[in-house]
Design goal:
The complex is a heterotrimer of chains A (298), B (788) and C (158).
Chain A lengths: L4 E2 L4 H9 L3 E3 L5 H6 L9 E3 L9 E3 L4 E4 L4 H6 L1 H6 L1 H7 L5 H6 L2 H7 L7 H6 L3 E6 L2 E6 H4 E3 L2 E2 L6 E7 L5 E7 L12 E9 L2 E10 L6 E2 L1 H7 L6 H14 L10 H23 L8 H4 L5
Chain B lengths: L8 H11 L22 H6 L14 E7 L5 E7 L1 H5 L3 E6 L22 E2 L5 E7 L2 H10 L1 E6 L6 H4 L26 E9 L2 H7 L2 E9 L11 E7 L2 E6 L4 H12 L6 E4 L16 H11 L3 E4 L2 H6 L8 E9 L5 E13 L5 H13 L6 E10 L13 H19 L3 H8 L18 H11 L10 E12 L6 E5 L5 E5 L12 H9 L6 E4 L17 H28 L6 E4 L2 E4 L6 E3 H8 L6 E4 L24 E14 L6 E11 L6 H20 L30 E5 L23 H13 L5 E2 L3 H10 L4
Parallel strand pairs in B: 1-12, 8-27, 10-11, 14-15, 18-19, 25-26
Antiparallel strand pairs in B: 1-5, 2-4, 2-6, 3-5, 7-15, 8-13, 9-10, 9-12, 13-14, 16-24, 17-18, 17-23, 20-21, 21-22, 24-25
Chain C lengths: L2 E7 L2 E7 L5 H6 L20 E4 L2 E4 L12 E3 L12 H8 L9 H14 L5 H7 L11 H17 L1
Parallel strand pairs in C: 1-5
Antiparallel strand pairs in C: 1-2, 3-4, 3-5
Classes of the chains: A alpha+beta (298), B alpha+beta (788), C alpha+beta (158).
Chain lengths: 298, 788, 158
């Protein structure tokens, strides 16, 4: 049995380890579970990131937020700034896996795992988040839109670690993440949608719409966004955005749903996410997580 | 008749009822007040000190792993274990060549311990490996070199039933089988229920409704994946295993390995649930053989994936065609039905279950003319077998939807339709059984009332009801009871505790006979070398049969105590009673002696020992001459009746259903332990909700499971559960178990899917003909109906 | 390669040497002989293995044992004080929250985590907090009732 293991408290030690080919592990909720399911074998050499203080926590920046990579989903869901201003992230973080998974699973791990069904990816994409990655030789920022190159694949090099996610300021916006849920808890996105809107008066001035689990990576749908801009964001406009997003989706058929059902549900969840985001932009209350509170909504 | 080794409930039931010529009639008694009962095993379970089979370790123990077919149908061209044996750490590898060449099965002996020549489903065992660690065992199992020649896979149920289908078993005709089994090629068992003249009555009916329902198979999913540990001492083997039926395991190991039953001791540590999946001989014979070959103790622990893929007990897939003729006044005049039941690749108790399904396709309704056929057919899929109320929830789901369709065609309220057709005391059942005092109508009225049937509901909500029945199973069962020198009691029973609390509640019965408190008894159970025979935690039979045995054993001890007391108190035996831990002259507070003192007296000579079995009550006589495939379910002993009413809300855009409320009214005779009985209802409803909405085995075209893991085989979570109102209708039966009690564990999940289905149909105006009623299926049915 | 680690489980120190790939559950059940935590699935769906790590609920089947070095681990074996059951344990027995018992250790731990974070939970809070623990026996009714009863008792005691 070979295998190196370290659990450094400094980032530079961790970067040295990944430079030597050690695989980073945060909560283990993807890495170890995947191993147990036989999806892959556990990497020989591991470096645990959970003791590096500077990777953890949420701090306000110039109107925005900087979220440490090992911040847990539970911490995201409970953060007051996120709940008020980046609400779609709270919608998403509060429905990831189980309560235990939310306590131990991290934002950075979720991004590095690059699942097309990852809950937080859609909201981060719509908020135009930047992912800061660092290696022993330097650091760079990757726009979330450029992070994923396919299911399980990212633009992060093997010698790099995600250290933080930066959320730029987005004043006056309302946002919402909705996922289709077969059960009330313990679900995975079969179809999900994020909407972020900014209103001027009754008119939508800015709109970002992303679909989750409907393409090889989470992606924004420009046609749906432009159809919403300039509209009143009412039922017809929301439905039209949903129709356009569904049309642009490239879903698959698998054990969870057929292609046809996924496409039809894309229209529904996009419509509900848009309606939810509009409501929140207007200051109306829509409970977090939106997936539960939009059950049965038109 | 085939000599059955097999003691699982249904088979034992069959044997018992064929032999029964006499009966003991126990007078009904009124319900005793519920004592506060803390489970004897409870402290172990909440502190983590209780051991389950996977928790056990013995000195020198090796770890076992199985190699399975992983293809649905193939001929074995080559099987080479050389590389596996050569792996360091491997102590033994066994295949079919290393165990007796013997076919076994409950009604139809069609299977072997390991595949010989042909594999017939993906989970079929080919070899077993024992090694020093689980990892080495798994690696060695993978190193076994197997060359398989693919054969056509029989997956589709209707195609399987056709005469031109490829055969699952080429040599089917040579297999030994129960003399009453009607079979042909892929048809493993045909059972019919025939009464009157259904064809003529149907032709004369005012309205005839015919429809068709298709149900996926599903899984029992005990939270404990099974584990087995075998260790030999000379020619005697001890097997610690997570089984529901230790005595059936013992007889099964004896038959398949050529041992005497007293060479085998089966011990069940705490059992982490079963729900039918751990009935019958499981994998104990293979592990015992592996341990023998290795010369060491061997433990096998299943992963969840193996627990989905390898057992021979999944709930059967079914296709159900139902036809009902009614008069304009709503009276049913005829029922025809054709059920196709998936037997899977091999037969354990499934050939019997078709007959149960045929009875459920009649239901507890007055129907003068009946013609139902249930065909159980072989496929190249996982074997089916009893899972909590086998065939019950599935058939009830179809029948009760069918009844709502009939009611709708009649323009009749569904509750009123049932009210007009349910059986009453004195009515004649499907094959001629005459009903005694029963409470089925009350269950309907109370369940409907509890959810406010007929009252206005918010937009998008609706209520559905479903009514059904289930038999009790009178069987042989035994217990010993001792009063120790200090006055404490010990019950030694063959009964098995699977979590329901049925064994834990046995002291209630003993205590009442002996005038003691339930907590004064300690129970020793689930060890075949300790307690006398019992058929196991199966068929909802423990309290029904072992309760009778414990009462009989306690009664012997009571007589011994009273005799001692009569001598000491110089009183007449007939004037004595046992009350509050004392033997006393009835009504007297002074002429008394404590049971502890009597026990002390007896410890010198004439020990206080009781043994009990008692005779099972009879099964109602039938006139079933026109039925074929009679395997013992043509009449239901001490049938229980029940109605569930479900209030649901459906998301019309997605097809997602939320169950908002369930009312469960059950007539189960007398309730002995109300908390325990309610616990059975709650759990049954949860399992029924799962089968209704989210639990279904998805098969590939060639019969392999596609969702053999919990994320995509979805149980209901605590967040999904609605309020459940439980109501027991008290109708003690003179021919039921002790005190007029009936089985309670299986019935509660029978009517839940049907009630939910009818609620969905009323909410949407669209009926769902596939089970589980997943969001996608509901969405698809609405789309086909011109919505969306 | 094995690494030295000191696991703090139920306020007892266990110095060990273990390989990096070992899960906390396998070490608890194996080297430590604490078999109360159960293994019920492969994909963190059943919750039977949940333990507390520094007070937070974690599926120990998917958590590397070495990551627990120096952290406080609480398993079901650590809930009672000597022979006195924790109010949650007692409530599970009194309210029919225990049947087969296989989910019970994980349920008790999730309930402990819930009540520490939220001493006065609503029924919905309880249902959300326990949703990562599957039970096949009870329909969860007795479990929810037990958590409500224990919460009331613990709140009164404060």
């Amino acid at each position: 049995m070979g295998g190196h293991f370290s659990a450094p408290s400094s980032l530079s030690d961790a970067l040295t380890a990944v430079a030597a080919g050690h695989r980073p592990v945060a909560g283990g909720t993807d890495l170890v579970v995947g191993t147990r399911q036989g999806k892959w074998t556990l990497p020989e050499d591991l470096v645990a990131l959970d003791r590096i203080a500077e990777l953890h926590g949420i701090v306000a920046t110039d109107g925005g937020l900087r979220i440490g990579a090992t911040t847990s989903h539970a911490d995201l869901a409970a953060d007051q700034a996120i709940r008020e201003r980046w609400t779609a992230i709270a919608d998403a973080a509060s429905i990831v896996g189980s309560p235990a998974t939310r306590h131990i699973g991290t934002l950075g791990g979720n991004l590095a795992n690059a699942s097309p069904a990852a809950e937080t990816s859609g909201p981060l994409l719509c908020f135009e988040a930047l992912v800061e990655v660092r290696s022993a030789t330097g650091s760079r920022r990757i726009a979330l839109a450029d992070l994923f190159s396919g299911p399980g694949r990212t633009a992060i090099r093997q010698d790099e670690i995600i250290v933080a996610v930066e959320l730029p300021e987005l004043a006056g916006a309302g946002s919402c993440y909705v996922r289709l849920e077969f059960r009330r808890q313990m679900e995975i996105a079969v179809v999900g949608a994020t909407a972020v809107v900014r209103l001027e008066g009754d008119i939508v001035r800015e709109a970002r719409i992303a679909i989750t689990a409907l393409a090889p990576t989470v992606r924004r749908i420009a046609a749906a966004e432009s159809s919403l801009i300039g509209s009143d964001g009412g039922p017809a406009a929301a439905a039209e955005a949903g129709r356009l997003a569904a049309g642009a989706a490239t879903p698959i058929s698998d054990v969870r749903a057929s292609l046809d059902y996924r496409r039809a549900m894309a229209a529904v969840v996009v419509r509900r996410a848009v309606t939810g985001a509009i409501a929140r932009a207007r200051g109306e209350t829509l409970l977090i997580p939106a997936s539960a509170s939009t059950f049965g909504a038109s | 008749m085939v000599e059955f080794w097999h003691a699982q409930t249904f088979c034992a039931y069959l044997v018992a009822r064929r032999r029964l010529r006499t009966c003991a009639i126990l007078a009904p008694m009124t319900a005793i007040p519920p004592p506060a009962l803390i489970r004897q095993d409870g402290r172990d379970k909440v502190t983590g000190s209780g051991r389950y089979a996977a928790d056990l370790t013995v000195t020198g123990m090796l770890h076992g792993a199985f190699r399975v077919a992983d293809v649905p149908h193939a001929r074995i061209r080559r099987l080479d274990t050389t590389a596996a044996r050569a792996l360091p750490g491997v102590h033994a590898v066994i295949t079919a060549a290393d165990v007796p060449d013997h076919r076994y099965g409950a009604f139809l002996k069609d299977r072997t311990l390991f595949a010989r020549d042909v594999v017939r489903w993906e989970g079929e065992l080919i070899a077993a490996v024992a090694a020093t660690t689980p990892e080495i065992a798994a690696r060695a199992a993978a190193l076994i070199d197997i060359d398989l020649e693919a054969l056509p896979s029989v997956t589709d149920l209707e195609l399987a039933a056709r005469p031109d289908s490829p055969l699952v078993h080429d040599a089917w005709a040579t297999y030994e089988a129960d003399e009453n089994l009607v079979r042909d090629r892929n048809l493993a068992s045909r059972s019919t229920i025939v009464k009157g003249d259904a064809a003529t009555a149907m032709a004369e009916a005012d309205i005839v409704v015919k429809d068709r329902y298709v149900a996926d198979g599903s899984h029992a999913v005990p939270i404990e994946p099974r584990a087995i540990l075998a260790e030999w001492t000379g020619d005697h083997v001890t097997i610690w295993t997570s089984t529901q039926v230790p005595f059936a395991v013992r007889s099964g190991v004896a038959e398949t390995l050529g041992l005497a039953q007293n060479q085998i001791r089966v011990i069940v540590p705490h059992l982490g649930g079963g729900f039918g999946a751990k009935c019958e001989l499981g994998f104990e014979a293979q592990v015992a053989a592996l341990s023998k070959a290795a010369g060491r103790a061997v433990k096998v622990v299943f992963s969840r994936r193996e627990e989905f893929l390898l057992p021979d007990h999944r709930r059967e897939r079914m296709i159900m065609e139902l036809e009902t003729g009614v008069r304009r006044d709503g009276t049913i005049v005829a029922r025809r039905g054709h059920l196709i039941v998936d037997n899977g690749a091999y037969s354990m108790d499934e050939p019997f279950l078709g007959q149960l399904a045929a009875m459920f396709a009649v239901g507890p309704y007055r129907i003068p003319n009946i013609d139902i056929t249930a065909d159980t057919v072989y496929t190249n899929t996982q074997p089916s077998g009893s899972v909590r109320a086998p065939t019950g929830p599935t058939t009830c789901w179809a029948l009760e939807q069918h009844h709502d369709v009939v009611a709708e065609r009649l323009g009749l309220d569904p509750v009123e339709f049932r009210r007009r057709n349910l059986v009453h005391e004195g009515d004649t059942g499907p094959a001629g059984q005459v009903f005694e005092r029963i409470g089925v109508l009350e269950t309907l009225e109370r369940a409907a009332a509890a959810v406010g049937w007929g009252k206005p509901l918010p937009e998008g909500e609706a209520i559905g009801v479903a009514t059904g029945w289930w038999p009790s199973f009178p069987l042989a069962s035994g217990a010993h009871l001792t009063i120790n020198a200090d006055g404490s009691g010990t019950i030694v029973t063959g009964a098995q505790e699977c979590g329901t609390g049925a064994v834990m509640a046995l002291p209630i019965l003993a205590a009442e006979v002996l005038g003691m408190r339930p907590d004064q008894f300690r129970i020793l159970y689930q060890d075949t070398d300790a307690g006398p025979y019992d058929s196991g935690a199966s068929g909802s039979q423990t309290t029904f049969n072992n309760g009778r045995a414990v009462i009989a054993a306690a009664t012997e001890v009571r007589d011994q105590l009273l005799e001692l007391a009569a001598n000491l108190l110089e009183a007449n035996l007939a004037d004595l009673e046992l009350v509050d831990g004392m033997a006393r002259v009835k009504g007297s507070s002074t002429a008394s002696v404590s049971i502890a003192d009597l026990a002390s007296e007896a410890s010198g000579a004439g020990l206080l020992l009781g043994r009990g079995s008692g005779l099972p009550p009879p099964t109602p006589a039938v006139n079933a001459a026109s039925c074929v495939g009679r395997l013992g379910a043509e009449s239901f002993a001490a049938p229980t009746f029940f109605t569930h009413a479900a209030r649901v809300k459906v998301d019309r855009d997605t097809g997602v259903v939320r169950v908002l409320e369930i009312a469960a009214a059950h007539e189960s005779g007398t309730i002995i332990n109300p908390i325990g009985a309610a616990g059975q209802i709650y759990g049954g409803v949860a399992m029924g909700m799962g089968q209704a909405l989210s639990e279904g085995i998805q098969l590939s075209a060639d019969g392999r499971q596609r969702n053999a893991y919990l994320l995509d085989y979805k149980l209901q979570t605590v967040a999904d559960m609605p309020p459940i109102h439980v109501d027991f209708v008290d109708a003690p039966s003179p021919t039921a178990g002790p005190k007029g009690l009936k089985g309670i564990a299986e019935p509660p999940n029978v009517p839940t899917p049907g009630a939910i289905a009818n609620a969905i149909a009323r909410a949407l105006g669209t009926r769902i003909h596939e089970l589980p009623m997943t969001p996608e299926r509901i969405w698809g049915a609405m789309a086909a109906n011109g919505e969306s | 390669m094995r690494y030295p680690v000191t696991l703090q489980v139920n306020e007892t120190s266990y110095p060990l040497e273990i390989e990096p790939g070992r899960t906390l559950l396998s070490v608890l059940r194996g080297e430590l002989g604490l078999t109360g935590s159960k293994e019920g699935c492969d994909d963190s769906e059943c919750g039977a293995c949940i333990v507390l790590i520094d007070g937070r609920p974690v599926n120990s089947c998917s958590y590397l044992a070495l990551q627990a070095d120096g952290r406080q681990v609480t398993t079901v074996e650590g809930l009672a004080s000597g022979s006195t059951l924790h109010p949650l344990q007692r409530a599970f027995l009194e309210h029919g929250g225990v049947q087969c018992g296989f989910c019970t250790p994980g349920m008790l731990i999730s309930a402990t985590a819930l009540l520490r974070a939220n001493p006065d939970p609503t029924e919905d809070d309880i249902r959300a907090g326990l949703s990562g623990n599957l039970c096949r026996c009870t329909g969860y009714v007795g479990i929810v009732a037990a958590v409500q009863a224990a919460a009331a008792e613990l709140t009164r005691a404060d």
